[in-house]
Write a structure and sequence with these properties.
The structure holds two protein chains of two kinds. Chain A is of the alpha+beta class. The longest helix of chain A is centred in the first third of the chain and has 26 residues. Chain B has three domains: about 70 residues, no CATH class; about 120 residues, Cytochrome c-like domain (Cytochrome Bc1 Complex, Chain D, domain 2, Orthogonal Bundle), CATH 1.10.760.10; about 70 residues, Cytochrome c-like domain (Cytochrome Bc1 Complex, Chain D, domain 2), CATH 1.10.760.10. The chains are: A alpha+beta, B mainly alpha.
Chain lengths: ~550, ~290
């Protein structure tokens, strides 16, 4: 018996309070700081990877180069607001092609449905900038001030030289990170290397410095001070996502059918003949939680499903010789099944007769088999385990299909899109002019768009308007029914032309015809249907 | 103040205000809100010192900055003027032809001419320069006083029949009927001839009478074939365009007692640069020769 007591005695019992859980958050009471403990495990490793990749994408993307020839910028991703162009590797988008961005937003929306309905709030827990940067800030905090207990101690300590040093160092590094974050943002909007030099020589417009200052301030306050409050109070995402979860979505779940009734003194309780679950109430899950909640209270809005409590609990279960997964990713369906199994069908948590899960292999090897509950529970075999099969179901299939079809449609449009366009504006005042020989003249502003980064020549021809003669402003010379223009690389060329039709060729007040534009030495062509206006015959 | 009242349920002091048994809690203001207000107060002190702020009886306090919105506008106008000075100086030097030959100058002159036109010319010539009876349409290719750049420049600069300007375009058609130079039948016959050369339906018998009368009385200015002469501002009577109207009645009225258009000289009002800009704009409307 004494030996058994020693076995659980190796587990540190942490005094941790779920300071951010709903019951603890009173109105008009200042926020209680959360001091998340460092976690170790599968999900922590995964989060390190995701953090590295997402930060890498953010900081490095503007520095990637992409050769587009001499007439276009060589920055791979560039939002050129001044020239109204968006460059993304081999794609160049003009303002009128902004529907691609709309399409991407639609895809992002459906992607949100898909991800949330399968793996729950994975975005919140792994990829959201707020999560990533808070994680990064916590690394710095831990480096200077130590882990949870040391930080709490430091926080409560009175000001000393040591405390001042640690705090100054931490905030200095935070500010540096915040500044780099705010600074990296502007590189997406202009040539990054040039911008970097100009930034330090103070040659940039005030708006650039303002942007950096605002984003630096926001990163610093959001990552350093506001942290879980951003998710709890400010972000609409949790509210929206909660509506998209169903009972087959993965959520971080405390399996109370296994853990309850929890007991800090399991051995003593067992000796006294009490029923005891797998949870030893060590509070490890609460201590690591960056949101300051207790997952054992069930699914809650504050939980971002970062899964660090799974890592913490698995570590404890490992030491205790129990199966992992007292806290696990599980679907509500599986959880309900198991709860029904453990309660004999009532599903009332008060009736739980825990299905404790001893790791037989581990127990045998470590010869700890003397534990009181070593007799395997017969219900263990009936326990439902959440597997990847929950991902494939009609709902996710439909989302995937919709997502893929939009993606393919957009790809098809992108691949076949024209890089030549023509727009025509008809003169409105006056709509037509009568000339001395009785012929009628209309004026048009012709805009030819060369959407490729090299100079091109085009022929513009009037089709379907008998007797039409082109002339240019400031000259009486008739140019026939076509003319050629050169358009600079990646530019729009606007030409004012007049079109006159002899009196005897005009038979109606409104005649439709086409301006056809053909690439010279190339294959692209386009057209615009325009109107030729003349006075009504009866006037 | 009377004794403090405490709300039983929340334990918070009330303001003492009560409506139908509902009391107002005297909760403290949110800290961030309070500090924001203090900041605003601090800011407003600086603002009042720096900017014109407090209205007095006749004027407001001036503030140490001396900024006024009118002053700011004047600065901006001066800056805009300074930015145009180089191009204006070039236009001053160059002839209208030289300006049209220079892409940058031409573009500048066209946009300046466009706004000058909208302010000074649209009252008679219309917002699209489309004209009205008695006021020429400037888009077409029919010009009373010539349609090349120099002629247009000359007309705008000195006006037409504008007495204050010695170089103004002047001509006057005799009032053949009113001054009894021709009788009613003769005028009617001339009108038939004019209808003929303009491709309208006409009375062949009267026209026979009118043709020699036209040659005798009208061809000196309007030409033998009636095609007009821009030297005298004599309109082309053989084309499809009419300054007043192209019908029998209007032609008879014009021969009987002619109306004459008038245009002020603009160089004395707007200056030479503006007239050049206007000339280039008008020439570019489509009818310029």
């Amino acid at each position: 018996m004494a030996e058994n007591a020693g076995a659980t005695g190796t587990i540190e019992k942490i005094e941790a309070e779920a300071v951010n859980s709903k019951e603890q958050r009173e109105l008009y009471v200042a926020r209680k700081k959360v001091f998340p403990k460092r976690a170790y495990g599968t999900f922590r490793s995964l989060k390190w990877w995701v953090m590295g990749i997402t930060l890498g994408i953010y900081y490095l993307t503007p520095w990637l180069r992409w050769d587009r020839g001499e007439f276009a910028p060589d920055q791979a991703v560039l939002i050129d607001l001044a020239n109204r162009r968006f460059y993304f590797f081999f794609i160049e988008i003009w303002p009128q092609e902004f529907y691609y961005v709309a399409g991407l937003l639609v895809m992002a929306g459906i992607g949100l449905f898909l991800v949330t309905s399968t793996v729950g709030r994975a975005w919140c827990g792994y990829a959201c900038p707020q999560t990533v940067w808070v994680d990064l800030f916590l690394v710095v905090e831990r480096y200077f001030e130590g882990d949870r207990n040391a930080r709490i101690k430091l926080d409560n300590a009175s000001w000393s030289r040591e405390k001042i040093f640690k705090r100054v160092a931490k905030h200095a590094v935070w500010l540096f990170i915040a500044f780099s974050t705010g600074g990296a943002w502007i590189f997406y909007f202009a040539d990054a290397p040039t911008l970097l030099v100009d930034f330090w020589t103070f040659d940039l417009p005030i708006v650039a410095y303002g942007t950096v200052a605002v984003l630096t301030f926001m990163t610093y306050t959001f990552g350093g001070f506001m942290r879980e409050q951003v998710c709890t109070y400010m972000c609409p995402w949790p509210r929206i996502q909660a509506a998209m979860l169903d009972e087959d979505s993965l959520t971080v779940t405390y399996n109370n059918w296994r853990g309850e009734p929890r007991n800090r003194h399991a051995k003593r309780a067992i000796a006294a003949g009490d029923t005891v679950g797998d949870c030893v109430d060590c509070n490890a899950c609460v201590a690591v939680c960056p949101m300051g909640i207790d997952i054992r209270e069930g699914q809650q809005l504050e939980c971002i499903t970062c899964a660090l409590c799974i890592d913490a609990c698995d570590g404890v279960m490992q030491k205790l010789g129990r199966e992992h997964g007292l806290i696990s990713y599980a679907t509500l369906r599986d959880y309900n099944e198991n709860l029904a199994l453990a309660t004999g069908g009532t599903s009332n948590p008060a009736d739980i007769n825990p299905i404790t899960m001893i790791n037989i292999v581990d127990m045998a090897s470590k010869k700890k088999a003397k534990m009181a509950s070593v007799v395997p529970d017969v219900r263990v075999d009936k326990v439902a385990h959440t597997t990847l099969r929950s991902i494939a179901r009609p709902r996710t299939m439909v989302y995937s299909a919709v997502l893929m079809s939009i993606a393919f449609a957009m790809l098809a449009v992108l691949v076949t899109r024209s890089r030549l366009d023509i727009n025509v504006l008809h003169d409105r005042n006056p709509v037509f002019v009568k000339l001395s020989d009785g012929s009628i003249r209309n004026g048009y502003e012709i805009k030819v768009l060369n959407m490729i980064a090299r100079p091109r020549k085009f022929g513009v021809k009037v089709e379907g308007l008998n007797g039409a003669e082109i002339s240019f402003a400031g000259s009486n010379e008739k140019m026939g029914d076509s003319f050629t223009i050169s358009v600079a690389p990646d530019q729009l060329q606007s030409t004012k032309i007049f079109l006159s039709v002899p009196k005897d060729q005009i038979d109606k007040a409104h005649s439709n015809f086409k301006f056809v534009v053909n690439e010279i030495d190339g294959e692209e062509n386009s057209f615009y249907t325009a109107k030729f206006e003349a006075p009504r015959k009866d006037r | 103040m009377a004794e403090k009242k405490i709300d039983e349920i929340s334990g918070v002091e009330t303001t003492g205000h009560e409506w139908d048994g509902i009391t107002e809690l005297n909760n403290p203001l949110p800290r961030w809100w309070l500090y924001t207000m203090y900041l605003c107060i601090l800011f407003s002190i600086g603002y009042v010192i720096y900017y014109p702020a407090i209205p007095l009886l006749t004027e407001a306090t001036k503030g140490i900055s001396g900024i006024t919105t009118r002053g700011e506008l004047m600065k901006e106008l001066a800056a805009a003027k300074a930015s145009r000075a180089g191009l204006i100086a070039k236009i001053e030097e160059a002839s209208v032809e030289e300006i049209v030959g220079d892409t940058e100058l031409k573009r500048f002159a066209l946009s300046a001419g466009s706004s000058l036109f909208k302010v000074n010319c649209v009252q008679c010539h219309g917002s699209g320069a489309q004209g009205a009876p008695g006021f020429p349409n400037l888009n077409d290719d029919d010009w009373l006083w010539g349609g090349d750049l120099d002629a247009i420049y000359q007309t705008i600069a000195h006006g037409a029949r504008y007495e204050q300007d010695d170089d103004t375009r002047t001509s006057e058609m005799p009032a053949f009927g009113k001054d009894e130079l021709l009788d009613r039948n003769q005028i009617a016959s001339i009108a038939e001839h004019v209808l003929k050369i303009s491709d309208f339906e006409y009375d062949a018998e009267k026209e026979k009478e009118g043709a020699p009368l036209f040659a005798e009385n009208c061809s000196a200015c309007h030409g033998v074939d009636g095609k007009g002469n821009s030297e005298f501002g004599a309109p082309n009577l053989a084309d499809a365009l009419w300054l007043y109207a192209g019908n029998r009645q209007a032609i008879i009225a014009q021969v009987n007692a002619p109306k004459h258009g008038e245009m002020p000289a603009w160089n004395s009002r707007l200056g030479d640069v503006a007239v050049k800009q206007l000339a280039i704009y008008v020439h570019n409307l489509g009818g310029g020769q």
